[in-house]
Design goal:
104 residues, rod-shaped, 0% strand, mainly alpha, 1 helix
């Protein structure tokens, strides 16, 4: 009977050990899955941030191109104004010269 009791005790021990290992491995799997989910959520947040930054960069590039066009137009207008101004000065000088010579 003692042998049967030991055998029964051993099988219960083995069963308990098996159940504990199964339970512990499920806990490990659950922990790993939770970590994976956490990393996945973090990656989603990071990807959203990258996309937002990309949109901001595109807007900045558009503004820069607009500013560049405006600067080029401004430069052309100032060059025309400078040319007109210098032509007007020459014209005024010539008219003054002609008027002065007419008195002579």
């Amino acid at each position: 009977m003692k042998q049967q009791s030991e055998s029964h005790s051993t099988s219960i021990s083995a069963l308990l050990q098996e159940r504990m290992e199964h339970h512990n491995s499920n806990d490990k799997i659950t922990l790993i899955q939770e970590k994976i989910d956490e990393i996945k959520d973090l990656m989603i947040v990071n990807i959203d941030k990258v996309l937002d930054q990309q949109e901001q960069l595109l807007r900045l590039v558009e503004k820069t191109e607009t500013l560049k066009k405006s600067a080029m137009e401004f430069k052309k207008k100032t060059q025309k104004l400078k040319l007109f101004s210098s032509t007007a000065s020459i014209s005024d000088s010539y008219e003054t010269y002609t008027a002065a010579n007419s008195f002579l």
